Amino acid sequence: MKLFDVYPLYDVTPVKAKGIEVWDDKGEKYLDFYGGHAVISIGHTHPHYVKRIKEQLDKMAFYSNSVQNPLQTALAEKLGTLSGCENYDLFMCNSGAEANENALKLASFHTGKSKVIAFTNSFHGRTSAAVAATDNPSINAPINKQQEVTFLALNDFDAFEKAINSDDYCAVILEAIQGVGGLDEPSTEFFQFIAKKCKENNVVLIADEVQSGYGRSGKFFAFQHHGIEPDIISIAKGMGNGFPVGGILIHESFKPSYGLLGTTFGGNHLACAASLAVLEVLEDENLITNAAELGSYFKEKAEEVPEIKNIKGKGLMIGLEFDFEVAALRKKMIVEQHMFTGSAKNKYLLRFLPALNITKSDIDLFFEALKKALK
To answer: How is domain 47-284 classified at the CATH fold level?
Structure first.
């Protein structure tokens, strides 16, 4: 048997990692400024994270959600406190796509409707409703296209008001900072307008924080830059620092019932141990503040590079836009400078998504390498 060939791969084989440092099978060291799609939030093999998972593995790795699991309760309490979202309930699953799938399903249950409003260049996952709400026809199979989704441009007030007033929608799903799409953001005025219109029309507002959450933007959630309160918040990526885990935060105004949502692996003991470790490190090392401060420092350094035409994003979720396609530059950064960066649907954009405990020295090294690669 061979692997189903769906990923274009760089010729790098990582075998060991610590912090933002990654070593390949030839002993070469790389610096990871991409974190595997913003997944590595507290650094590779953080000692507290490793200890937490090892201790739990020695006790018990898994049992289903048919029994009590105090780790889930502890995680919900810790997450509510650190995020400021105490008036939400937690449902755990295994990935960002599954989180958004459950969010959309719950919105449909709640409203009795099925149509969704999403936005141009959005990315919400690769499963049924989540991929239908993703603005990429090439990954939408005919079976996904049965879902009814209206795509609107960000910050188009008139188009949004016209659509939502048609009274056909169960949900609006929105990334506070677009990830794969290229770091575009709704304005505060637009986000607040969406929240107001959703309330008026009994439409569920879903904040997709799969990539922008967990401190990456310089606040726990990126929507918190805009002073709104979503009905459902989807989370994953940095939640487990590499352990597969996801979830949704559901406003307390939603009433649960047995069988409404379900999962076999979601919220398992190892997932909870990993997720608790991430929250503990975020708090103990003050990493959300670090993300905000180093995001500002990064932008200052970026402004010194004349080839960079635009800087997008917040905190340590940043896009550098050039006036040329960056595929060759990204390859040079890996092959010649031994640094991982990310791409986007916007082919002119280089994405920077490191662990939240990087330092100014790490950023200095990045820009030294970038300037060499641009020559």
So the answer is: Aspartate Aminotransferase; domain 2 (3.40.640)
